[in-house]
Amino acid sequence: MRHLLTALALAAVVSAPAAAQAADPPAPPVTADDADPDASISPVEPDYTIISLPTALRLPRHGSAIRVTHRFARPLDGGFGDLAADLFGLDSGAQIGLEYRFGVVRNGQIGFHRTSDKTIEFLGQYGVLRQSPRRPVDVTVLATIEGVDNFQDRYTPSLMAIVSRRRSVCDEGSTAHCIQG
What we know:
Elements: H1 2-23, E1 49-50, E2 53-54, E3 64-72, H2 80-85, E4 94-105, E5 108-115, E6 120-129, E7 138-147, H3 148-151, E8 153-164, E9 168-170, E10 178-180
Antiparallel strand pairs: 1-2, 3-4, 4-5, 5-6, 6-7, 7-8, 9-10
């Protein structure tokens, strides 16, 4: 009798997860409207900035990114001898910045950037138009406000439109393995 109860208890434990799993409703299928193309990395457009110019690259919803920036403090003016003596700005100080971006909605992100000279910038970016076969360009709006002395003085707002065109890289004769970049 004891072995029978042990076998029944063991069978109940082993079959419980299978029964619970079978009782769960199936996940709804992902439609084209639900798929977020920004969730995958594009090798053609790998970053949010190129040198110091913003791009139309978007974070996926609830995605985040951290970026460290570095700019030499010495301007590249003066003669070649002066620049070479300073190793083209390498011997002078640098402005280090730390930026955090968060995708709040699909096609939209907010961000915070602070540099070592205590300049703080808040930004918001939203992709207004998405490139498609009928629309040849992406249009993104970027709004920022910057303040010096830890956002205590000299506020500088800006509003810009980023118009860009991504190219498509496809395998020969196949659109199934197409990378939009």
